[in-house]
Amino acid sequence: MPITEEESDKIKEHLLSQLENFPEDRRTQIKEQVNSMSIEEVETFVEQNKLTHLGEQCIFCSIVAGKTPSFKISEDKDNIAILEINPLSKGHSLVIPKEHSNKIAQSTKNFAKEISKELQARLSPNKVKINEIEIMDHALLEVIPIYGDETEKRQAPEEELKALQEEILKPKEVEIKDVFEPKKEKIPVLPPRIP
Ligand SMILES: [Zn+2]
Fold first, then answer.
1. pTM of the predicted model, to two decimals?
2. What distance in angstroms lies between residue 122's CA and the mean position of ligand 1's atoms?
3. How far apart are CA 173 and CA 72, in angstroms?
């Protein structure tokens, strides 16, 4: 992620504002180190520490790493899907690419389509919308079931999200299809035997 000089300065400023988290005797040294960093060095630092252009830790990378708890509903090798904690509707989910990037890969779009089909089958909304968004430089997809009565986002209680996660993850009831079964001969029903 190439950064501009202005962004580099912002990141340095942010890092310097964190100085109080370090022991007093190391602060001067760290301050000098931060101030002497070139743009390239800031860029490497940002990449290695998965920071945003403001120098903040990326919440989505933290979720992917399992450092921030979430309600995961699916995962493949490049993406995870979690329930949005401030949903617009029941089943509102986020598809997060595991890689911190401001671009969405085709594999992520395909994964989101699978999630939308799953939500459609499980929750029966009128339709499912997929939006591309970017938060803290991490591009992701929102998968939102639309029921027609949506008003605004609200904070969902943890128990509600947990119950919904279980509902989405529970094994599907197997539909028994008899299309390929050979037709059974009709057996005449015998009258019940009277002993
Ligand atoms: Zn990230």
1. 0.71
2. 29
3. 21
